[in-house]
Amino acid sequence: MILYGRNLSPFVRRVHLWLALQRRAFEQQGLAATEPADAEAIRAVNPIRRVPALVLEDGTTLTECFAICDWLDETGGPRLIPAAGIARREALGRIAVASATSDKAVAMVYERNRRPEAFHYPDWQARLSDQIQEGLALVEASVPETGWMGDRWRGGEGPDGGDLAAVCLHDFLAVTNPWLLEPGYPRLVALAARANAASPFAASHPG
Questions:
Q1: How far is CA 169 from CA 119, 130, 177, 196, in A?
Q2: Looking at residue 147, what is its pLDDT?
Q3: Whole-structure pTM value
Q4: Are 16 and 41 in contact (CB under 8 A)?
Q5: So what's the pLDDT on residue 114?
Q6: Element (H or E) spanning 150, and its range?
């Protein structure tokens, strides 16, 4: 399998981690959709020129983070989202919050980091910042007080999709706009620090 996209993207990195934790064999094309030459290469597998895109061994291309991860859970183990019941709903809820917050964090990069300062829209930046802070507060509340349940992940003995989404969100902000973490999210920070001390998190860190 071939994964298209850079690990700077919290969505690409989540798929990278999902593949690694399921011990899937894959290679990665670290292409950025924002770079014209890279975008054309991505277009060959995903005409919308978005990442992540995962090309399967039979040539099928899967796109969009959740759809890719859902396929991975259906076709190999261990599952990173429970198959059914309240545990599944709870994990999906944590993923949804972290994903929505990641969307806003990516929008902030386009608005603040990439757009020329003369064309910045302060009211839009303020709105994005408020949405990111609200999302981070919800993520923080979902992490145990120590960042861990003893020596366990929030998902149990190993990380689940919610753990991955939270760590990828934190690390994307830490690299692109660390000021957004300044209000202080100690549980999330502890979770990310513990995760990034171990492979495959360390190997895929975007910094």
A1: 26, 16, 11, 13
A2: 56
A3: 0.95
A4: no
A5: 94
A6: none
